[in-house]
Design brief:
Elements (H helix, E strand, L loop, with lengths): L5 E12 L2 E14 L4 E5 L6 H8 L7 E6 L7 E4 L13 H11 L8 H11 L16 H13 L5 E5 L7 H18 L2 E6 L2 H4 L5 E6 L2 E7 H6 L4 H8 L9
Parallel strand pairs: 3-7, 3-8, 5-6, 6-7
Antiparallel strand pairs: 1-2, 1-4, 8-9
Length: 248
C-alpha cells in the first residue's frame, strides 16, 4: 500500500513492572492506513487498542518496531479521548479552552481568535454562546464535540479517536459518529476509530483490525469482516452486537 499515510510494522509496546518482566501490551502488530480512510481498531477492554492509540500519538514510548505518519508534522495528528469532560479544564470556559490552543500555537492573529472560536463551534454543530459555558454546564455529547473542535483547531490531517462515544447513549453516539464522518469528508481527514463496540465501528469504518491479547486476529474491509468473520474472536464480538442501525 504505497500511498499509506500511516505504517505500523512489528510494533511492540511494553509496560515495566517492578520485580517482574515487563508486560507486553502490544505484540508485534503491523498494518497500514490510507489517506482519508475511516479505519477501525476494535477489541475488548485490555486487548491493547488504547495502548496502541496512545503510542501512535507519542503519549507512550514504543519498545520496538515502527509507527510512522508519512510526511506529517507532529501537530497534524490529534487525539480525541474517551472522557471528554475530564479532558477539559473545569476552571476554563469553552471559549477560553479553544482560545488557549489558538494562542499557544499562534494559529491566528489575536484579533481573530473570537471569530475562530465561533467558527470551530459551528463546525461541530454548537452555537457560539457555548463559548461562555463551563464543561460542567454541558452534556457529555457537547463536551465530546468541544474535544473534537479543539483537535480541529490544529488543522489536523489525522484524528485518532479513542472510544469517543463509549460514555454516551446510543442516540448521542450516532450524532457524534455522523459528525466525525462529515468532518472526514469536509476536511479530507484520516480517522482512526478505537472502540470495543463493533456496532459503533460498522456504521462508519472502511477497514478495520480486530485485536485480542495484544495481537491482530483479523483485518480487512469492514463490510467483508462483518459479513464473513473468519476468526472465532471476531465471531464472538459480532454475536454480541445489537442492531442499532436505525439510530444512525
Amino acid at each position: 500500500m504505497s500511498n499509506a499515510i500511516l505504517t505500523v510494522k512489528d510494533l511492540v509496546i511494553e509496560y515495566p513492572r517492578a520485580g517482574k518482566p515487563p508486560f507486553r501490551a502490544v505484540k508485534g502488530v503491523s498494518f497500514e492506513v490510507k489517506p482519508n480512510e475511516f479505519f477501525g481498531i476494535v477489541g475488548e477492554s485490555g486487548c491493547g487498542k488504547s495502548t496502541l492509540a496512545k503510542a501512535l500519538c507519542g503519549l507512550l514510548p514504543i519498545t520496538s518496531g515502527e509507527a510512522a505518519f508519512h510526511a506529517l508534522p507532529a501537530h497534524a495528528v490529534q487525539m480525541v479521548f474517551q472522557d471528554a469532560t475530564g479532558s477539559l479544564n473545569p476552571r476554563m470556559t469553552i471559549g477560553q479552552t479553544l482560545t488557549e490552543v489558538l494562542a499557544v500555537y499562534d494559529l491566528c492573529p489575536k484579533a481573530q481568535r473570537s471569530e475562530m472560536v465561533a467558527t470551530l463551534l459551528e463546525e461541530v454543530g454548537l452555537p457560539a454562546e457555548v463559548a461562555l459555558a463551563y464543561p460542567r454546564e454541558l452534556s457529555g455529547g457537547q463536551c465530546q464535540r468541544i474535544s473534537i473542535a479543539r483537535a480541529l483547531a490544529m488543522n489536523p490531517r489525522v484524528i485518532i479517536a479513542d472510544e469517543p462515544v463509549s460514555a454516551l447513549d446510543v442516540s448521542v453516539q450516532a450524532r457524534v459518529l455522523n459528525l466525525l464522518a462529515q468532518l472526514r469528508k469536509r476536511r479530507n481527514l484520516t480517522i482512526l476509530l478505537i472502540s470495543h463496540d463493533l456496532a459503533v465501528v460498522r456504521t462508519v469504518c472502511d477497514r478495520l483490525i480486530v485485536m485480542n491479547a495484544g495481537e491482530i486476529v483479523e483485518h480487512g474491509d469492514a463490510k467483508a469482516v462483518f459479513a464473513r468473520p473468519q476468526h472465532p474472536y471476531t465471531q464472538h464480538l459480532l454475536a454480541a452486537v445489537p442492531d442499532i442501525a436505525e439510530a444512525y
